[in-house]
Amino acid sequence: MEQIISASNIKCSGCAKTIQEGLAPLTGVQTVTVDVAEGTVTVTGDTLQRTALTQKLAELGYPEKNASSGLINIMQKAKELFSSK
Prior knowledge:
Elements: E1 2-6, H1 13-23, E2 29-35, E3 40-45, H2 50-60, H3 68-83
Antiparallel strand pairs: 1-3, 2-3
Helix pairs in contact: 1-2
Domain HMA: 1-65
Protein name: HMA domain-containing protein
GO molecular function, one term: metal ion binding
């Protein structure tokens, strides 16, 4: 099984490494490949749960593109940033 997820904020190989290390321990994950230029994460495995993958990506700071939960997280972080000044 393969899941391809378009994620926000993927900018460099450091981002790719963070994503790979963050998703690798999830149940069913066998490989994680990140295409920095395209902003996609490809995960292969036997029993992948897309919801768990996208939730972990959001926790890591790479929410799924066009996902309302990702937008909410970004808005919350923006409010925290501006309210602390």
